[in-house]
Amino acid sequence: MTRTTTTAPTSAYLRAGLLAAGITAAAGIGAGAVRGEDFWLAAGVFGAAALGPALALGWLLFVSDHTVPQDAHAEDSVERRWAEQAGAGAFLDVVIASSVALALLSVLDVDISATGVLTLLVVLALADSAVRYAVVSRRGA
């Protein structure tokens, strides 16, 4: 059992910061190397964009165990059941929509970029899951 306080040990903050710095540097260097021109500009922009999520990941992995109390019955909550039902339904909807779209694109011989298709799938999954969660939670309340 983890004991929680308002602060974590200094080593936890240090590890979180080092992880964030590593992710940020890797994202910046990777983007700069791929972009070719204006290496430092691309590295700075992508590194800055990665900094927030990298810090959040570092906090989640190293600091949160010390500062956030754990709920012993988190798996038993009604909200978790609602989220599982919404996620399962949304997954089925995305599989069906992907199958129909694939069949239509094959028959119509339409060429669409992978980026566009994946973006549409992510947006569909997020929107579908949010709507299903709202419906399930309203019915359950």
Give the SSE layout.
Blueprint: H1 10-35, H2 39-67, H3 78-108, H4 114-140
Helix pairs in contact: 1-2, 3-4
The stretches of 5 or more residues where confidence is low (pLDDT under 50) are none
How many angstroms does the end-to-end distance come to? 32 Å
Percent helix, as a range, is over 70%
Q: What is the chain-wise order of helices and strands? A: HHHH
Q: Compute the number of helices.
A: 4
Cα-based radius of gyration, to the nearest Å:
21 Å
Average pLDDT metric: 89
Report the β-strand fraction as a percent range. under 5%
| Largest sheet geometry | none
Supply the helix-strand structural class: mainly alpha
Work out the count of structural domains.
2
How many strand units? 0
Which of globular, elongated, flat, extended, rod-shaped describes the shape? flat
Keywords: Membrane, Transmembrane, Transmembrane helix
Transmembrane segments: 12-33, 39-62, 90-108, 114-135
Question: Could you name the key traits of this structure?
Answer:
2 domains, membrane, 141 residues, mainly alpha, transmembrane, 80% helix
Overview of this structure, please?
- By secondary structure, this protein is mostly helical.
- It folds into 2 domains: 10-67, no CATH class; 74-140.
- It contains 4 helices and no strands.
- α1 runs antiparallel to α2 (39-67).
- The longest helix has 31 residues, at 78-108.
- The model has no long low-confidence stretch (mean pLDDT 89).
In short:
The protein is mostly helical and 141 residues long. Helices cover 80% and strands 0% of the residues. It folds into two domains: 10-67, no CATH class; 74-140.
